[in-house]
Protein: TrmH family RNA methyltransferase
Amino acid sequence: MLSTNQIKYLRSLRERKYRLREQAFLVEGPKLIGEMLPHYRCCMLVGTAPMLAATAIPRDVEVVEVPPSFDFKRISMQTTPQSLLAVFELPAEVEPKVKGLTLLLDGVQDPGNVGTILRTADWFGFRQVWLGAGSADLFSPKVVQASMGALAHVQVIPLTDTVGVVRRFRAEGVPVYGAFLDGTNLYEAELPTVSQPTILVMGNEGRGISPEVAAGVTHRLTIPVFGTAGHTESLNVAIATAIICSEWRRRG
Structure:
């Protein structure tokens, strides 16, 4: 059974400052936990006996069995909690390297958008996403849940100096594409192959790409509007990312 201190510990991991202090993050549900287990070190598993029995538990994991009557809402952020929760170690920091088409999120703040973009990158086979400054915390429960297991397949690297990284790779000859409301029509633009080192920048939900990062963009893309007068002002950033990734992949 969970102790009071363990419950406090699990609840604390909802907040970024405690995730950083403990170097750990939460994952909920058997499917998502199963996806993550081969790729991240698991520290603790909390679940009912049937859930634990159905899970391939690695060695050296603290396992806490709770009775069916346990109220998972005490430790879960889900409206309808599933009876299995895991604590994983935060991964070590990695130096960014451009591998094929690499997505860079510049201040994408909504956890749902970040998680959806990770799913999109995974779907289209783009294996690296960089999280620029101001973006949602990668290991917040909402991002983890919205990614639907994409974190197990896509390498995500948080950046502390987004502008410096863009400048460095541009100086090395890496093309930097960005999505803007004005630019070359996506369907008419020349695009590198998906395997060629390229950066694609997607901007903040309201402000778009910041001026500082935009200064490093070498190719401006826009998704053309086909609607009639009075159409919506802009596309959601996750939807725009999916459209661009789809066209990039279609070109090969």
The CA atoms of residues 47 and 53 lie 9 Å apart. Strands lie at 24-28, 42-47, 62-65, 84-89, 101-106, 128-131, 155-158, 176-185, 198-203, 219-222.
